[in-house]
Amino acid sequence: MDSSNLRNQLDQVKEGASEQDEADEDLGNETETTTDESATDSKTETADPSETTGPAFAAQTSKKLSIYPNEETARLIKVLCNSVENNLIALGHDDFEVREAHDAMVRFAHEHPQKVTELVLEARDLDPDAVDDLP
Amino acid sequence: MEPQTSQNGVVAVCILKGGMGKSTIAINLAHRLQKNHGKTVYVDVDKNGHGTEFLGFGEAYNKNGQLENVIFRDTHPSELLIETEWGFSVVPSSTEMSTINDRMKNQMNADVILKNEIVDPLRGEGYEYVVLDTPGDPSKVADNALVAAQSFIVPVIPGQGSISGLERIMESQLLPIIEATDGAADILAITPNMLSESIRPRKPDRRLLEDLNENWVDYLPQYARITDEQWEQIDDQGRGDIPLPGIRERDALSDSFTENKPVAEYDSSCDQIKHFDTLAGIVAERA
Ligand SMILES: Nc1ncnc2c1ncn2[C@@H]1O[C@H](COP(=O)(O)OP(=O)(O)OP(=O)(O)O)[C@@H](O)[C@H]1O
Ligand SMILES: [Mg+2]
């Protein structure tokens, strides 16, 4: 592909993506949708830092928990927090706090018990698609 | 039209996102380039130094002074080279990388420093191939790596917003370089990574593969291509003799790094090595 084709292709793909994403509902794609929007929005609207509201809840109202992920998985928490932070910055909010991502992670997982079951199965090397057979 | 490439043997493995397999692919690509095609050096320019640590050079990563002298003084980059028992050489990352990044911003020609101070001199030392392992977030060092390379391999994994990471790096970094060079710079491959064995409809793997095959098929290595007819066959009659696409998730690919080796030196029977050979072939032909 030459460079002008590449740009056209990219524009087309991004247009298509925002329409299609609304219909989608599982884990991977929800993440994609959010980041997707950040990528487009940051270009079209110049973010106004004064709009930034700050974290949704104060540090004092957060609860310190121990969780016990596998060592390798634990590393992903940081990776995820970085992505979320970058997305927020792209949207003009430069005051991200890690607790906000922790809070969202728990709420997200809570909304997707089936997906969590799948991942647990997968980690045991069992067939994750078995959840499709749940009553 | 086949674009004219700059053909300097330099390739950057890049995407603006962490944990996509940049380091895994860069290291194993370097190993296969050395094995199949010619003298190769792996250069880790990610400040996190994961690739350097994967290969067991944590000590070099923590050693100070050297990299700064190469970049801002007259020290030759061969001073940084580590010879390995696997054939290819390594330029380790360094804890100084963040400071270097800040200093770069104040320099003239701030985007060609890596090219002038590291990549070109190493090419002059007889390295035919230079593989750059780049950081997952935007920085001056990352810009430098992409400008030095002009050839890009972009890894994406199922889910986790990797498609948007792909679009982001294309738009903000790769396209500007490709346009500025009138197509001499180019994306050599977009490669899926960490695929599971499941390509059932609506699962993240399936969505990634469908998306890539629909939108970016020209950039997909053969091992990741699935045609519409093949999808139909897979859904109607089962996969049959259609090979599962790569690069798949394999314990050998992560375990090899706990023993500080490229995968082919750790487990030569790993069935994904052939995909690194394919990527090496693409680089040898087009980078
Ligand atoms: N195909 C694969 N099979 C199994 N494990 C993999 C595969 N690809 C990558 N990994 C593992 O996933 C993790 C992330 O990969 P890697 O470090 O190569 O990504 P990266 O994009 O360089 O990340 P970072 O942004 O942290 O530098 C590593 O632990 C690596 O061993
Ligand atoms: Mg890395």
Description:
The complex is a heterodimer of chains A (135) and B (287). By secondary structure, chain A is mostly helical. Chain A has helices at 3-21, 27-44, 71-90, 98-111, 113-123. Chain A is flat. Chain B has 287 residues and is of the alpha/beta class. Chain B is 45% helix and 11% strand. Chain B is built from 13 helices and 7 strands. A 7-stranded mixed β-sheet of chain B has the order 3-4-2-5-1-6-7, with helices on both faces. Classes of the chains: A mainly alpha (135), B alpha/beta (287). The A-B interface holds A 1-3, 6-7, 9-10, 12-14, 17, 24, 26-29, 31-32, 34-36, 38-39, 43, 72, 75-76, 79, 82-83, 86, 122, 128-129 and B 1, 3, 17-19, 136-137, 158-165, 167-168, 170-171, 175, 178-179, 182-183, 187, 196, 198, 200, 202-204, 207-208, 215-216, 218-219, 254. Bound molecules: adenosine-5'-triphosphate and magnesium ion. Adenosine-5'-triphosphate (ATP) binds at residues 18-24, 46, 48, 50, 136, 193-194, 247, 249-250, 253-254, 257 of chain B.
Structural class call of chain B reads: alpha/beta
Q: How many distinct folded domains of chain B?
A: 1
Give the rounded overall mean pLDDT of chain A: 75
**Largest beta-sheet details of chain B:** 7 strands, mixed
Structurally, how many domains make up the residues of chain A?
A: 2
Strand content of chain B: 5-15%
**Share in helix of chain A:** 55-70%
* Count of DSSP strands of chain A: 0
The strand line-up of the biggest sheet of chain B is 3-4-2-5-1-6-7
Alpha carbon gyration radius of chain A: 18 Å
* Helix amount of chain B: 40-55%
CATH architecture classification name of chain B: 3-Layer(aba) Sandwich
Radius of gyration of chain B: 19 Å
- Distance from first to last alpha carbon of chain A: 48 Å
Biased composition (Polar residues) (chain A): 1-11, 47-63
Biased composition (Acidic residues) (chain A): 18-39
Region (Disordered) (chain A): 1-63
Pfam family, one (chain A): DUF7970
